[in-house]
């Protein structure tokens, strides 16, 4: 009866609540896969003049960390950063260190200010992105010239502005991750 | 939003330990990263095999996007071609008339050249490229300017080999994977290339600035003979590049040389050719400390004898 009146009555935003459950593989792998893909995506651009793309992998990590606190373990910056280092052109170890430091810093900020909102998240992620941007420029293995800093400025601006979009993307990825995809019985 | 209550440790010893372990692991990871970073700054090629595996995995995807990129470029070019079609047609007609005359002249010069070379017993050796491939990617997030090509050790590509497009020099192979390689582009701030002016013997170094332009620094300081619009070509010094390949055009004059624009922009090329090292013996001689070869390709010593004042 209820079904006929409202077909979605027995389902929520994660899908039908009867006869369905979450796919454990999907629930566990989506965050990591999305961060790895975000690390890979800028490699496919040909940037011969200046650093064009913001550090998408790092921004994705920040977005997952902010939108879903407690989902990623504290040490996850190291393995994901190691992968990013392999493809990003930075010397190996740069992202391992910076991403781990960023994860620790955000954990500390979270214990200090437990109640957070979107604006504070954006501020924290933006600050982290700018600091990581500057540190990666300085640790890139080449000496930092004023020209290099000037042409990389749009990258910093873009990475700050990109956070809200990525946070929305992560939210929808999270809905996909927790969707009840597996049929029971 | 407050963090989930499951993450507050409270009085539970187990929860406290797991929080502590998390911090400990992350701290150790950061220290490990610092150590790895120092190691790779000290020995840039230390993790080359690992990077080779990663770029091998990315290369097939990059080939797809490279094909799409060249396709979209030509689509844009054909749309842009509809504007100004009439005036361009007239201009091209005029240009082709002049070009025909020049071509006939060039044929004559070529024939004479061949005759003179035969007279001097200079043998012509064409450089055969080792591999022709596409640029499949680049380090778009990093301050360094690296590109990835879709040919590697399996195709005979080795570190040090010059990478050329049909217009001029793109860069030099730095590390190789099995079917992909990492190329140091000319615009990278660690790239140095010995060049000379196409007309006349002004010898200089073209260094990347990291912002897409090259800084051309003259070997002999004095009155700066460069002019805006001068074409710089490879001089062949250092032994990596064959001489006479276009590199850059001077755009601005500075006291010690000039600022130059690239002739062959990597983002505008479809195919690149990997050529063998011009003079492997000379390179082997110059490459004294084997670890440092990634950066210093040009010892100024071999350029000194053919420097000519103007």
Strand content of chain B: 15-25%
Ends of chain B: how far apart?
A: 72 Å
What's the pLDDT, averaged over the residues of chain B?
Answer: 82
CATH superfamily of chain B: Rod shape-determining protein MreC, domain 1
Helix content of chain B: 25-40%
- Most residues in contact: chain pair: A-B, 65 and 64 residues
Order of helices and strands of chain A: HEEEHHHHHHE
User: What is the 3D shape of chain B?
Assistant: elongated
Mean pLDDT of chain A: 88
Number of helices of chain A: 7
CATH top level of chain B is Mainly Beta
Please identify, by name, the CATH architecture of chain B: Beta Barrel
Largest sheet of chain B: 6 strands, antiparallel, barrel
Please tally the β strands of chain B and state the result: 12
Helical stretch count of chain B? 4
Major sheet attributes of chain A:
2 strands, antiparallel
Extended strand count of chain A: 4
Tell me what you see in this structure:
The complex is a heterodimer of chains A (about 180) and B (about 300). With about 180 residues, chain A is mostly helical. Chain A has one domain (about 1-185). Helices cover about 65% and strands about 5% of the residues of chain A. Chain A has a two-stranded antiparallel sheet. Chain A is elongated. Chain A starts with a helix and ends with a strand. Chain B contains four helices and twelve strands; from the N terminus they run H-H-H-E-E-E-E-E-E-E-E-E-E-E-E-H. The N and C termini of chain B lie far apart (about 70 Å). Chains A and B meet through helix 4, helix 5 and helix 7 of A and helix 1, helix 2, strand 1 and strand 2 of B.
